[in-house]
């Protein structure tokens, strides 16, 4: 992946992440973690090489195919990106609203995912009245709304204390046990002891360790 500035953010990466995995994407600041996650939902496209996600080849997929891929992908952005002028309900409902669901149909679904993250009673609250950990759980609820087989999370525990971070991980692990693939960028390596997963380590845009590297692509 070469950005327009000429910066090569990722190169020579060769790996395979099977459906159902729980992957920690680690590496120093600037290593390329967010870049890799963005490529996985087609937010940016690799400038050379091959990346296939859920059967979609990112580099030459049409806009329509990228949109379809995003409907099958839950995204938790770095810094949760909740809309502060909207209620928790509206924030969580957003992805399915965009797909044309009306409020009547949305409400039971939103209630269900908020129960899963333990925040059903905050449906009509505004994000600024929630703690950082609660906001992060709202972001998870939004990502899981359409029951996607893949969730990409960019530092979902950034700025959370250890106990709160583990609570967020409990929720992601529970989703993983239900079959959802989780790929999560993090600096919180201590989480690995309480919540084991596969580790993919980047360093300056190059893979240091990763599971199931293919010898011959
Ligand atoms: N839009 C962009 N244009 C040019 N360069 C970029 C762009 N986005 C990121 N980069 C560069 O690509 C490299 C990888 O950035 P990336 O955001 O993927 O790192 P990261 O591993 O997520 O870091 P952090 O842990 O700080 O979030 C960095 O050198 C960064 O400056
Ligand atoms: Mg990042």
Structure description:
- The chain is α/β, with parallel strands linked by helices.
- The chain has one domain: 3-Layer(aba) Sandwich (Rossmann fold), CATH 3.40.50.
- The protein has seven helices and eight strands; from the N terminus they run E-H-E-E-H-E-H-H-H-E-H-E-H-E-E.
- The strands form two sheets. It has a six-stranded mixed β-sheet, sandwiched between helices. A two-stranded antiparallel ribbon has the order 2-3.
- A hairpin with a 2-residue loop joins strand 7 and strand 8 (206-209).
- Helix 5 runs parallel beside helix 6.
- Mean pLDDT is 93; it is low at 212-217.
- The site of magnesium ion has 5 residues, from helix 1.
Brief synopsis:
With 217 residues, the protein is α/β, with parallel strands linked by helices. Helices cover 35% and strands 15% of the residues.
């Amino acid at each position: 992946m070469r950005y327009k500035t000429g910066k090569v953010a990722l190169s020579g990466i060769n790996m395979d992440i099977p459906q159902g995995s729980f992957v920690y994407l680690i590496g120093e600041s600037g290593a390329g973690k967010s870049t890799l996650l963005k490529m996985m939902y087609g937010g940016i496209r690799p400038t050379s090489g091959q990346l296939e996600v859920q059967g979609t080849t990112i580099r030459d997929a049409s806009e329509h195919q990228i949109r379809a891929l995003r409907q099958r992908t839950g995204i938790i952005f770095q810094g949760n990106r909740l809309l502060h002028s909207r209620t928790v309900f509206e924030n969580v409902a957003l992805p399915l609203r965009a797909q044309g669901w009306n409020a009547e149909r949305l409400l039971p679904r939103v209630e269900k995912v908020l129960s899963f993250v333990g925040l059903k009673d905050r449906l009509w609250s505004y994000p600024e009245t929630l703690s950082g950990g609660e906001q992060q759980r709202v972001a998870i609820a939004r990502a899981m709304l359409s029951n996607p087989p893949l969730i990409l999370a960019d530092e979902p525990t950034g700025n959370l204390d250890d106990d709160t971070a583990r609570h967020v991980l409990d929720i992601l692990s529970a989703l993983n046990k239900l079959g959802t693939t989780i790929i999560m960028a993090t600096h919180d390596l201590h989480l690995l002891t309480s919540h084991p997963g596969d580790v993919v380590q980047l360093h300056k845009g190059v893979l240091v360790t990763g599971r199931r590297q293919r010898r011959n692509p």
